[in-house]
Amino acid sequence: MMLDPLRIAIAGLGTVGAETTRLLQLHGATLAMRCGRPVQVVAVSARDRKRDRGIDLSAYAWWEDAAAMAAAPGIDVVVELIGGADGIARRVCEIALAAGKHVVTANKALIAHHGTDLAERAQEGGQGLLFEAAVAGGIPVIKALREGLAANRVTEVHGILNGTCNYILSRMRATGEPFERVLAEAQVLGYAEQDPSLDIDGIDAAHKLAILAAVSFGCTVHFRAENVEGIRHVTGDDIRFAEDLGYRVKLLGIARADGTQLEQRVHPCLVPAESPIAQVDDVFNAVIAQGDFVDRVVLVGRGAGAGPTASAVVADLVDVARGRVLPAFGMPFDRLDARPPAPLSTRTGAYYLRLQVRDEVGVLAAIAQALSAQGVSIEQFIQRRRDPGELVPVVLTTHPTDEAKMLRGLAAISGLDSVESHCLIRIESF
Ligand code: HSE
Q1: Which of 101, 108, 143, 208 is flagged as catalytic?
Q2: Mean pLDDT, rounded, of the chain
Q3: CB 262 within 8 A of CB 341
Q4: Mean pLDDT, residues 113-139 taken together
Q5: What element of type H or E holds 409?
Q6: Closest C-alpha residue for ligand 1 atom 7
Q7: Paired residues of 427 in beta bridges
Q8: Which 3 state secondary structure label does DSSP give 201?
Q9: Whose CB among 64, 228, 342, 366 lies 3.0–4.6 Å from 202's, allowing a Cys bridge?
Q10: Do 119 and 199 share a domain, yes or no?
């Protein structure tokens, strides 16, 4: 016997909202069998009613005002697909929870900034706050961490969390084209936004990492802007030197909770060319978790796009339809640990440094001296010949050292007259 339908309202009918609606229409019969009840859209809200979205919306109540829809009766779950950390998206979620409705959202900025508060509101009313689609698109990473790995103490989670950056870095390596040209190509193909800064400056990945850290370690959600670097400064030279040294360049999010502090950072990394994460190219995402009993778990898939994101949204709806409403971050909000952040300056590890120098007597000795004065040991040193008068790239890698020492050494190097510019990239040996 079928239970009553789960009645869904969708706020936002952009590409993900339209695809979620299409998926629910197409797979409605199968989903009803899986859930033991129909999973039905009853209401939708978007700005432009006239736009052709390629789906039949005639059976659904149309709301101009998503906040009013979130408060309306006859709805069990509101799917928030508007986006943005604040404003209407946040209001819709708060109103829906206050009105006793479950909330499903793909909004990483909202959860990264207000996730703990929303989890409290959801828990107090006995509703679900679900956000599988907010991290790594179609990869079921929230479910894997919160449920599949629930038996473990997860000490580390890291990954490629932004498909746009991974596409750009992969294409730079494959084609030898510079960053700007590959970014322009990604914009034409629709992989990068016209304003690409959220992606290429690492903010999008940092939103996702904040959520992953909270779910992995059972801590409150914090977006740490101070520990975020993007990929604008990575050049074709860096990609080629990395290759020669046995590495690939990837933008990674890395979170660790093995001490009393929480390490949470996003930046380009050199990773060993043979490591699993180095093999993940183009728009694909990867998430790697380390649990004390399970050891290492690697999840790879499409981290963006209408289909994969709709797949994750509907997976959350299936959980709600089945009555599987869990604490948003895997434990009650008042048990979430508010760990202090580890400053990036406390990192220990190896470094890649590219310097653009004038080829003058003593420059290499001065660079080596600046590092040795800080106790930083050089592992490899490369200088390539260039035409007379051109700046010469000098590349070195270090043995593992403290970030604070490396930065002091770099400050001394940057002060040398012969050194024009530099690019420092952390080496991670997973
Ligand atoms: N723009 C993101 C990416 C997807 O490139 O991975 C949405 O977070």
Answers
A1: 208
A2: 95
A3: yes
A4: 97
A5: helix 403-414
A6: 304
A7: 270, 350
A8: coil
A9: 228
A10: no
